[in-house]
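thread from #wetlab-drylab

HS: before we spend reagent money on co-crystallization trials with adenosine-5'-diphosphate, can we at least see a predicted complex? here's what I'd submit
DV: go for it
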Amino acid sequence: MEKLLTRLLLIEDDEEDYLLLKRHLAKIPNTRYEIDWTTDYNAGLDRMLSTEHDICMLDYRLGAHNGIELIRNARSQHYAKPIILLTGASEYEIDIQALQAGADDYISKTQLQSELLYRVIRYAIERKKAELEREKLLREQIESKELEQRRNEFISIVTHELKTPLTSLKAYAQLLRRRFEKLGDEQLTRQAMRMDSQINKLTGLIDDLLDVTRIEGGKLKFYEEFYDFDALVNDIIEEIQPTTDKVTLIREGSVDAAIWGDRERTGQVITNFLSNAIKYAPEGERVIIRTCVDDQNVTLCVQDFGPGIPKEEQENLFTPFYRIEQPSRGAIPGMGLGLYISAEIIQRQNGRIWVESEEGHGSTFCFSLPLHRAPSIPEAAITEA
Ligand code: ADP
């Protein structure tokens, strides 16, 4: 079997000690040590910083300098290889100093023997690798957090800026519609209505972006109250049905209960389920909204008869900006935020959200909310994440 190669940089001013170390290392059965030996501080530092090696071993005594100074100096210049300090018989108390300066281990020259050397060198190399890997991971996490924070700040500024002109645009569109209606011009009235509904879509997209920045900044507010669940479902169906003439929304079941939570936010989830069903399954012709209740939960499911969703995609749907890319589905606009926001809304109310689907057999999106969630503060309460 080929021996493993370890390249060792040795900074040691005593030739006897170098030869002794070399002899011990030569006895190790499964590793070949290639030793690059140098005797003084400056040459040592130079080699540490400029040559390829796996580990550095250095003597505590290096002429006018000492090994600890060298370790400190090298580490301050970002030297990242493992370092083992070799100490003499009388240098007991420098081990901690060496570790503080940046050494990974030390060996007393009086204890040199092959097995110990093999273990100490191997451990130092592996520990350093693991340490560098951890540091890299941590750095990447911090960088991605910073990036995410900057992205959220950016989205937050842009969306706020977009909202103001959009609000006045909406007011003008409604004004025009009323004027055209009064004038009895049906075509212009229809056009103004279309303009208004496009503005609503744009407002919806901007609101989704704002919600995402709020969720990620822990600032999504909840206004909670007791509300009639059935009435909410009916209101939303009434609102959504006129937006499609291809799909019929069919209501099944009833809840007959008032539940505690944020009515508007829960409505947002139902709207999202329904508009997705219409958007992604228009050939299905009907969409069923099923509600039921047991002694613990209220459950609402929206079933469509569209293309369905492959199993491997299902758990990703609730993550931000996730969309299924399938050329066969055509270009359906969206940002992949609705289900992510929905999941947050349901989970914040101690509920559960899920999807049941098989490719080619439609999809059913559901959530359940606890029936007896006690209000934290009576009357309208505001909770923040
Ligand atoms: P958006 O619709 O803006 O892309 P969503 O978060 O609401 O964002 O949905 C995420 C993805 O889930 C959609 O892009 C779509 O691929 C898929 N999806 C959602 N609802 C359905 C559905 N009823 N049928 C098929 N695919 C769906």
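DV: The mean pLDDT is 91.
HS: ok that's useful, forwarding to the group
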